[in-house]
Amino acid sequence: MTREEELAQEGWVRQMLTNEPRLSEVVEEYRKLGFEVRLEPVDLGSEGGCTSCLSYAPDEFKVIYTRRGRTSSEETNNLH
Question: Is 0.70 surpassed by the pTM of this model?
Answer without folding.
Answer: yes
